Amino acid sequence: MKNKLATIMISAAFMAAGCNTSTQPAAEDTFEYTNERFADLQMLRYKVEGFEDLTLKQKTFIYYLQEAALYGRDILFDQNGKYNLRIRKMMEDAYVNYDGDRTDKDFVAFETYLKRLWFSNGIHHHYGCEKFVPEFSREWLMAHADCSDELAEVIFNPDIMQKRVNLAEGQDLVLTSANNYYEGVTQAEAEAFYNQKKSQGDQQRPPMYGMNSRLSKTADGKIVEKLWTADGLYGSAIKKIVENLKLARPYAEDEQQQKVIDLLVAYYETGDLHTFDEYSIAWVENTEPLVDFVNGFIECYGDPLGLKCSWESIVNFKDVEATKRTELLSSNAQWFEDNSPVALEFKKDKVKGITAKVIKAAILGGDLYPSTAIGINLPNSNWVRAEHGSKSVTIGNLTEAYNKAAKGSGMLKEFACGQEEMDIIEKYGDVTDDLHTDLHECLGHGSGKLLPGVDPDSLKAYGSTIEEARADLFALYYLADPKLVELGLVPDAEAYKASYIGQMQNGLITQLVRINLGSDIEEAHMRNRALIARWAYENGKADNVIEMVKRDGKTYVKINDYAKLRDLFGKLLAEIQRIKSTGDFKAAQALVEDYAVKIDPELHKEILDRYKKLNIAPYKGFINPVYTAERDKDGNITDVKVTYDEGYAQQMLRYSKDYGTLPLINE
Ligand code: ZN
Q1: Residues 75, 502: Cα–Cα separation, whole Å
Q2: What distance in angstroms lies between residue 525's CA and the mean position of ligand 1's atoms?
Q3: How many A from CA of 438 to the centre of ligand 1?
Q4: Using alpha carbons only, what angle is made at residue 354 by residues 348 and 357, rounded to the nearest 5 degrees?
Q5: For 220, 282, 586, 647, which has the most beta carbons within 10 A of its beta carbon?
Q6: pLDDT band at residue 610 using 50, 70 and 90 as cut-offs
Q7: What is the DSSP string of 306-336?
């Protein structure tokens, strides 16, 4: 599970220029965090501080792992839609070979489309999932690119492949989603296929059925899984990944980590889901190394049924100093579990092995690039988590880059209700943002348990939203707890107010800036934030806990009673945990549909108008650093250098050329 930009809008993006006087005086920092901007996107860079200080062995290990991370890029493009690789290739060729005026209106629109396609790993918006609308003409493309009629139809016909992931209630979510996870099967057929697998398989320790395959109907009507393995679908990419994992293996930090690599390789070669679980267990128990990595089919947000996992990779190393903070939380995990407002029967008697650390990302790949997470909690298998715990990370150098880039955006001034709220956020925002992420990842997702016999997928399309709400509520509830002051994690008992202001403001109004007028809220993390904020608003109405203040035609969110708001968060946490623990689909559906989907069009328009005046890109993503291995005459690596001067288009074109691993059609 990942925490995607969950907290960015809360304080950092709200920070007005020059106001952040409460933190340490900035040392001379000439690093350029912000890069180019296009469409609704702002490109950033992150700094891998401390890489130079690693040992040669660690640097070499990272070098091969980052190669393995880059070799999977094409897999995600194909998972996101079966025409993506073809369209990318056609457009890149046209882009490179274009010999006309590069300031020409059509060319600029075409270039923007291509940059968006790279960013989304496909032709659908990375967040909203809707297909891009080209702002150049079909005629222009046909004249300047080697584009087939088939591809032109996919690009220009608004009725084809409208949404990458469709979660609209009442529709066939499989048939109406443009992703490439299912071929010719209906939602009912897919659900029946996996329900049968589940009912016949291990009930105690069920593997994550369907996570590494495409489900296809053959010509004679049989439904089969096409596995993503070294000899199966995506084999040419997986072989390159495996090759680099094997090159990395001798430089692993300990024997256990070598075992992790061996199991991952075995799984890539066979596609055996039990091997994947073994790998996950070995990985979660491998807590000592400084350098760590994720590489594989991990998250299921791209599948409306939540079964198929998109490919991603991150290579990272621990930020030892910052990790002291999360270690404090995880060493008190049992206390947090015991004292939560959740009913006793849904609590874990023994919270197992939650390891939490702050890391520095060294490379981002697949579904973590360029749009990324700021926190990750893995593995996703429920029984592995219950029996072996999970690893939770906060990605410190990415949060840092977001914060640096967001200063001076004007968001705080525009949307904060008053000076008091601004002061609170300026004073405490950075601290509570980080802490919210830590609590969400290392305690929230790890808390609670399913009752015996409850199917972990019983919440179906509402599962991701409910799970994210559970983790966020856990964080929100405890941010206001005196325990955090006692542990020295917050400076005083007022600090939590910054996160409460952020949560309510974001959930009720500011996150709407990321949605087009007339659209619903779709993405799980956004639904979760709307659910929490609107539920608290509605249920606090009798006591006037939260007010929507109108001033000069502008809407503001004002919290009148912070203590009561905490009680409301606690109440909702208890209910959401009950829903999760008992698999109460109807209740999940009602909560999400009532609070988390629809938007008041009048309010939406007002927020969009106000936001537009600030001229900020609502989404951000990262350009990767470049790692160069220096070798002696025998080919041994003698040093690895990291540089930050590659441009966005340059990087994308290089990746397509050097790490283009798949044929354009994968069937
Ligand atoms: Zn999460």
Answers
A1: 36
A2: 8
A3: 10
A4: 155
A5: 282
A6: very high
A7: S-S-EEEEEEEEE-HHHHHHHHHHHHTHHHH
DSSP structural state of residue 213: E
Show the tokens assigned to 351. Answer: 């919270």
Task: Convert the pLDDT of each residue in 462-510 to its tens digit.
Answer: 999 999 999 999 999 999 999 999 999 999 999 999 999 999 999 999 9
Contact call for residues 422 and 416 (beta carbons, < 8 A): yes
How many angstroms separate the alpha carbon of residue 471 from the centre of ligand 1? 6
Terminal alpha carbon distance of the chain:
29
Ligand 1 centroid – CA 366 distance (Å):
18
Question: Is the C-alpha dihedral spanning 287, 288, 292, 295 positive or negative?
Answer: negative
Which amino acid, 27?
A
Question: Token pair 């469409």 is at which residue?
Answer: 39
Determine the Cα–Cα distance for residues 446 and 608; give it in Å rounded to an integer.
36
Give 390-411 pLDDT, tens digit per residue: 888 889 999 889 877 876 678 8
For residue 436, the CA-to-ligand 1 centroid distance in Å is 11
**Residue 600, SS3 per DSSP:** coil
> Residue 549 Cα, ligand 1 centroid: separation in angstroms?
30
Q: CA distances (Å), 259 to each of 63, 228, 253, 281, 486, in order?
A: 19, 22, 11, 11, 40
Distance CA(340)–CA(348), nearest Å, equals 11
Ligand 1 center from residue 321 Cα (angstroms)? 24
Residue 351 CA to residue 14 CA, distance in Å, equals 36
Could you count the other beta carbons within 10 Å of the beta carbon of residue 345?
A: 10
Angle at which helices 84-97 and 105-120 cross, to 10° = 140
Question: Ligand 1 center to residue 503 CA distance, Å?
Answer: 15
**Structure token pair of residue 443:** 């305690």
Residue listed under structure tokens 């009532």: 594
Which residue type, as a one-letter code, is found at position 6? A
Q: What is the DSSP letter of 444?
A: I
Cβ-based neighbour number of residue 337 at 10 Å: 21
Question: Can you tell me the mean pLDDT for 103-108?
Answer: 96
Six token digits for residue 401: 């880059």
Q: Edge to edge, what strands does the sheet with 619-623 contain?
A: 34-38, 41-45, 619-623
Give the residue from 377, 191, 381 showing the smallest Cα distance to 274: 381
Among 463, 406, 415, which Cα is nearest to 619's? Answer: 406
pTM: 0.79
